[in-house]
């Protein structure tokens, strides 16, 4: 991300709408508006639905800011500048579980429904317009609101299908995880890609015929027509705001029907299958809680391999915000549902393969920042993770330590668990590998590598004698 001489950093994901550009100045999130966007903003603040949504924390808090905070673009000053609340951790839809994407979709439709009733619409329908405060979605694209024009359809419908509806249908109807599909293309899943999977009797599944086959056919039929020509055709056909509202309600009804409770996996009941003794578990929990609470209160904790969130909850008692990362979408979905039922706003669960974390994507590879670029944690928890990476995924120990250090803010701490080669879990993993493949997977080597990257401030050998915990201050 380029930084101007004034310290203003343009948001790489914000270039697609030149009327609304987002900038970062220190910890502040600012948005520059051109004259028309500024007029829409003034009308929006005069509505009743928008302040109500902000008060309900369904839309991010936004206020006017001095226009001088953001420099002019191409010599033209911004007509207005807005200041937004900062989201604790930015995530991408391909890092969400099924229930997270569905809840985000329902919030987007609720907001659109409220806007339409007062003469507004949203010109975008992208899943990227939403973020999270823990287990609660929040709409962030204030620049998407504009007055609705009678006789026109929802401009964001195609985006909504590609980044929200099609991924949900893929998982709900076919049992296929949508995350790899969304990660592969920043604009989402095209109808042409999905349609061959929904032939025959599958065409009759909820939403498929209307929003996949018919929508795709209309796109092909109108491919040569301009947007204005399509709008004129709809007006002539009697398309009205009432019909638009009915369409949105129909989509909302469909999204509520889409569901998938995946079968249990090996990791679904980790506390029963992990093999820790009661004494090990108590000692580990005490060490983790003490380590997170040591020093200044952490603003951000990463819990890598969070599983059912046991240690994320411990960390949340001593930190402002926790990002709980787990590879299994089913486990993340169950954790999210539990956090949602608890009203948890300080733990964000994400689907992420630690050996293949989200890379940068979109235009020039920076439009959607990779996980490593977004993660600068005060504390990183890597509990029962190292052996899965080093043995299970053949990642050399030095690479694992370097990666953990790279996720940590300057002066931050890594709380890491080393599973000794003679531990039953390590033995099981090693049994599936050629003999002698990991000669450096030893406790003394691991400690040497840790000490080379920071200061080992504390350590604890669990009562079982085959696992050791470390708190290492990186760069210390």
Question: Could you explain how this protein is built, in words?
Answer:
The structure is a single chain. By secondary structure, this protein is an alpha/beta fold. 39% of the residues lie in helices and 18% in strands. It has helices at 35-45, 49-55, 98-117, 157-174, 179-184, 191-194, 208-221, 227-236, 241-257, 270-273, 278-293, 310-316, 329-342, 371-374, 386-392, 397-406, 424-431, 443-453; strands at 8-10, 20-25, 28-33, 62-65, 80-84, 120-122, 130-133, 136-139, 145-147, 301-304, 322-326, 347-351, 377-382, 408-419, 454-461, 467-474. The strands form four sheets. A seven-stranded mixed β-sheet has the order 12-11-10-13-14-16-15, sandwiched between helices. It has a five-stranded antiparallel β-sheet with strand order 1-2-3-5-4. Strand 7 (130-133) and strand 8 (136-139) form a beta hairpin. Helix 3 (98-117) runs antiparallel to helix 4 and helix 3 (98-117) runs antiparallel to helix 9 (241-257). Residues 1-5 have low confidence and may be disordered.
Mean pLDDT score, rounded? 90
Q: Ranges with pLDDT <50 over ≥5 residues?
A: 1-5
The biggest sheet, with number of strands, parallel, antiparallel or mixed sense and barrel status, is: 7 strands, mixed
How are the strands ordered across the major sheet? 12-11-10-13-14-16-15
Count of distinct strands: 16
CA radius of gyration: 25 Å
Strand content: 15-25%
Helicity range: 25-40%
Number of helices: 18
Which class of secondary structure composition applies to the elements? alpha/beta
- Shape descriptor reads globular
Distance between the termini: 28 Å
């Amino acid at each position: 991300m380029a930084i101007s001489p004034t310290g203003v950093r343009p948001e790489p994901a914000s270039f697609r709408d030149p009327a609304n550009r987002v900038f970062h100045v220190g910890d502040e999130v600012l948005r520059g508006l051109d004259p028309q966007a500024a007029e829409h903003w003034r009308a929006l603040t005069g509505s009743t639905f928008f302040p109500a949504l902000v008060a309900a924390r369904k839309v991010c808090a936004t206020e006017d800011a001095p226009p001088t905070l953001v420099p002019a673009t191409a010599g033209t000053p911004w007509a207005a500048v807005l200041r937004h609340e900062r989201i604790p951790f930015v995530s991408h839809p391909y890092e969400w579980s099924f229930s997270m994407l569905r809840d985000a979709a329902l919030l987007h439709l609720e907001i659109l429904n409220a806007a339409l009733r007062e003469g507004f619409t949203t010109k975008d329908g992208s899943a990227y317009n939403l973020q999270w405060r823990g287990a609660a979605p929040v709409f962030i694209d204030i620049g998407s609101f504009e007055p609705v024009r009678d006789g026109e359809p929802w401009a964001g419908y195609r985006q909504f299908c590609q980044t929200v509806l099609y991924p949900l249908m893929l998982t709900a109807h076919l049992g296929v995880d949508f995350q790899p599909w969304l990660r592969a293309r920043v604009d989402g899943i095209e109808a042409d890609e999905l349609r061959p999977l929904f032939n025959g009797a599958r065409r009759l599944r909820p939403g498929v015929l209307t929003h996949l086959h018919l929508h795709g056919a209309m796109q092909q039929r109108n491919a040569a027509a301009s947007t204005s020509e399509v709008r004129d055709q709809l007006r002539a056909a009697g398309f009205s705001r009432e019909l638009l509202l009915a369409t949105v309600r129909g989509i909302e009804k469909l999204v509520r029907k889409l569901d998938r409770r995946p079968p249990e996996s090996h990791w679904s009941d980790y506390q029963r299958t992990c093999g820790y003794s009661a004494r090990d578990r108590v000692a580990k929990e005490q060490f983790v809680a003490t380590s997170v609470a040591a020093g200044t209160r952490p603003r951000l904790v990463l819990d890598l391999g969070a599983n059912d969130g046991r240690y994320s909850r411990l960390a949340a008692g001593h930190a402002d915000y926790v990002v709980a990362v787990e590879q299994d979408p089913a486990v993340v979905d169950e954790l999210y549902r539990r956090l949602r039922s608890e009203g948890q706003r300080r733990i964000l669960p994400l689907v992420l393969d630690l050996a293949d974390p989200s890379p940068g994507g979109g235009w020039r590879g920076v439009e959607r920042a990779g996980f490593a670029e977004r993660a600068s944690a005060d504390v990183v928890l890597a509990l029962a993770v190292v052996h899965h990476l080093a043995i299970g995924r053949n990642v050399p120990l030095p690479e694992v330590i370097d990666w953990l250090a790279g996720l940590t803010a300057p002066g931050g701490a890594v709380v890491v668990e080393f599973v000794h080669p003679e531990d039953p879990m390590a033995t099981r993993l090693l049994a599936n590998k050629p003999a002698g493949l990991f000669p450096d997977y030893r406790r003394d080597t691991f400690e040497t590598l840790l000490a080379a990257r920071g200061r080992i401030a504390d350590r604890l050998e669990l009562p079982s004698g085959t696992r050791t915990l470390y708190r290492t201050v990186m760069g210390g």
